[in-house]
Design goal:
621 residues, 19 helices, Rossmann fold, alpha+beta
């Protein structure tokens, strides 16, 4: 037992009123203590005179036990033994509810009751509380000793002043702030410790507090210390009074909040700087702006964003200057992106965990920014604290939002381009056969010749062909769906079956499999085969197409007349055709499907002098 109490060696007789066993923790604790005689009763009515303290149970109803009202027992006991000191033990109830009810019940009239609600494992606390209730334990420390203990031990500044601003006493922390001992502070004023103007302001402030009686709460003040550093403190002051109620000075406390203000200013600066992300154009510029934000805020940790390269699918750092965060933690960047979860890199980068609070010496935080890439932040040689992680989340959220916006804007731009393409087709390509059909309909009304009907049929067939191509272009936004390993030979066979023309022969070499959307790959091959038929058939009206393997893709070659070298780059342009019956969209569609897969397609010359189309950038297995 502590040295701060007296009377602890006194023998006590304690009566425990325990109707159902729920006082067992108290009884066990008391019986394990020295000089305490415990008597157990089932009802308060059996407690007689001569006990130093009586403990009553107050407990709610359970599935197996009825409720026990300790306050009814208290009334009955005090009516019979008015001088008895009582403790009410609340079982499984909130201590505040028991204590408040007890103090509004009879404590003012009696003065001997107390309430106990505590963990049964705290046996020492139970014994001390019972001794307190019995009146055998009293604090031996004087008010002066308690005040001295507070001022010596409290970790923030505390000061007590008289009515003219002289220090009556201070905490040890306050005195050390000015490189004094506590005793040396007594009698000094703010005028001896700080600039005259500031001391004047503080004096008038404290006079107003004493005159109004209103405390000053949580006033944040900025100043520059002796080393030229900005610092902030949070101060609370209140008037203090003598026993007659006359104000005789002030009492106050000050807490250094420099770190909190620094973090607050940093977060504000990050939010303001993040506005630049809203104005950034494409994803590369967004990454560069993010890195620039960190460079423009000196107190901000090192930041680096790695974005997914759209052509390779690999993560690539935006900023490649020396001291790259990505170079240091590339493997963890990759894992954070693959798993789609944040990682905290620990110690020398040899390990990473998902939660900051379980990390040992965290040195970097890596946060995925949607499917765009990973945002990384580090403090260099220092450990990453909770504030750094919070800051990283703020920045990463802004970066992800900016990248999402850029993606939407890019998709909208593509949609607008497609609308323009459709408008061109409708306004130009479809209008011509429609005009032809309309003209021959007028002629056929007056003279229904077979040749007029044939012209109308040709125009309608042309419109149907253009409509089919238009529908294909309309799917361009969803050109590639789910990709799987597709056997190229099987796709070639499907594409050949869709073309009924007997003038086409397709020969397939051992190509292997590629990762592709099968239906779109078949569509790409169909368009290449049709192109060979429309443009490559010779005098015998027959064309042979060969599909073969490349190191990173495949080729489709025919034995027709081929494509002039000067025209090979133009054949993929929308609307380009050298055939009166062509739409000019077949090879354009081939290119869009290839690009949607991340492939490239180029036109060249086959071994037979015909056309050869090479699709590259596809891993062949």
């Amino acid at each position: 037992m502590s040295d701060g109490a007296d009377g602890e060696g006194d023998s006590l007789t304690v009566a425990c009123v325990d109707p159902d066993g729920r006082l067992d923790p108290v009884i066990t604790a008391l019986r394990g203590a020295e000089a305490i005689d415990v008597r157990v009763h089932e009802a308060a009515a059996t407690v007689g005179a001569g006990v130093d303290c009586c403990i009553l149970l107050h407990a709610p109803k359970t599935e197996t036990r009825p409720a026990v009202d300790g306050f009814e027992q208290l009334d009955a006991l005090l009516d019979r033994l008015p001088a008895c000191r009582v403790a009410v033990y609340g079982h499984d109830i909130g201590s505040m509810s028991t204590t408040t009810r007890l103090f509004t019940h009879r404590v003012l009239a009696h003065g001997g009751e107390t309430a106990m609600t505590m963990d049964p494992k705290r046996t020492e606390l139970i014994v001390r509380r019972v001794r307190q209730a019995a009146g055998s334990e009293r604090h031996a420390e004087s008010d002066a000793t308690l005040l001295h203990s507070l001022l010596e031990s409290y970790p923030h500044q505390i000061f007590i002043k008289d009515d003219v601003g002289r220090f009556v006493d201070t905490s040890r922390v306050t005195a050390s702030e000015y490189e004094f001992e506590r005793a040396e502070m007594v009698g000094l004023t703010d005028y001896e410790l700080m600039p005259h103007g500031l001391a004047d302001d503080l004096y008038e402030e404290e006079q107003r507090i004493m005159a109004s009686g209103d405390p000053m709460l949580n006033k944040v003040e900025h100043y520059v210390d002796a080393e030229g550093r900005s610092r902030w403190v949070n101060t609370t002051k209140a008037p203090r009074y003598d026993r007659s109620g006359t104000p005789i000075g002030t009492v106050g406390g000050t807490r250094d909040v420099t770190e909190e203000k620094r973090q607050e200013h940093m977060v504000r600066a990050v939010h303001e700087a993040s506005r630049d992300l809203v104005r950034a154009g494409d994803r590369t510029e967004i990454g560069e702006v993010t890195v620039a934000i960190a460079k423009d805020i000196p107190a901000l940790p090192r930041v680096q964003v790695a974005l997914v390269d759209e052509s390779t699918g690999d993560l690539e750092p935006v900023d490649t200057e020396g001291g790259s965060v990505y170079d240091r933690y590339a493997a963890w960047y990759a894992r954070a992106y693959e798993r789609g979860e944040s990682l905290v890199v620990v110690e020398d980068g040899a390990a990473a965990v998902a939660e900051w609070d379980v990390a040992s010496n965290p040195v970097a935080a890596l946060l995925p920014v949607g499917d765009h890439g990973v945002f990384g932040i580090t403090t260099g040689d220092e450990t990453v604290d909770e504030f750094t992680v919070d800051l990283a989340n703020i920045l990463a959220a802004n970066v992800e939002a900016a990248l999402d916006r850029a993606e939407r804007e890019r998709e909208l731009e593509h949609q607008n381009e497609r609308l323009e393409e459709f408008a061109s087709i409708v306004s130009h390509d479809l209008r011509n056969p429609l005009s032809v059909a309309d003209a021959y309909v007028e002629l056929a009304r007056d003279d229904p010749k077979a040749e007029y009907l044939e012209k109308i049929g040709d125009a309608l067939e042309r419109m149907e062909q253009l409509t089919d191509e238009l529908l294909t272009l309309a799917k361009r936004g969803q050109t590639v769906g789910e990709t799987t390993a597709v056997d190229v030979a099987d796709a070639v066979a499907d594409a050949r079956r869709s073309i009924s023309d007997d003038c086409l022969t397709v020969e397939t070499e051992a190509v292997g499999t590629i990762e592709a959307d099968r239906s779109r790959l078949v569509e790409l091959l169909e368009n290449l085969f049709r192109n060979a038929v429309e443009h490559g058939a010779g005098e015998d009206d027959h064309v042979t197409v060969t599909v073969g393997r490349l190191a990173d893709g495949f080729y489709v070659a025919d034995d027709g007349p081929g494509i002039p070298e000067s025209e090979r780059e133009n054949v993929f342009d929308m609307g380009y055709t050298d055939s009166a019956d062509g739409t000019g969209y077949g090879l354009y569609i081939v290119q869009t499907i290839a690009q949607a897969h991340g492939w490239e397609v180029a036109a060249g010359e086959s071994e037979d002098g015909g056309a050869r189309f090479e699709v590259t950038g596809a891993a062949v297995r």
